[in-house]
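Slide 14.
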Amino acid sequence: MRRIVAGIQRKQMMQNMPNASLGVLTMLISLELGFALLAGYFVARFCAGEKTSERGRFPSLAFDMGDWRVHLHHWLIFSAILVTAVIANFFIVAPFVFYGFLGGVIAQGVLYYDDWPRVIVRQPKNT
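Slide 15: predicted structure.
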C-alpha cells in the first residue's frame, strides 16, 4: 500500500481529493476548528500563486545568500507564527478559530506545492 501511495504525484492526489475533506476530520473535534481550517486553506489558495515560481497576490520571501537561494515559504512562516502563538497562549479570536485558520494556511502550503520542503537550494553557478 505504501508503494502505491508513494507513486502517486501530490498534484494528482490533491485533484482527486476534494478540498472540503480537509476539514471533515477536524469538524469531529470542533465545527469552529474545521471551518477555520477550511477558511485558512481557501484564503491561502486565493492569495498564493498557481505555481511556486509565479507571484501570487503577495510576493514570496526569497533571497540570495552567496551560492544559496533561501525561500521562506508561507507554510514555514505561518508554522512559526502558530508555534509562537500556542506557546504564548495568544489568539485574536477564539483559540480554535485562530489556530485553525493558521493550520489551514499551513496545510495549503504543504499539500498544494510540490517543492514545499525545499527551503534552501544551491543556485547553479554562472561561469
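Speaker note: The first strand starts at residue 61 and ends at 65.
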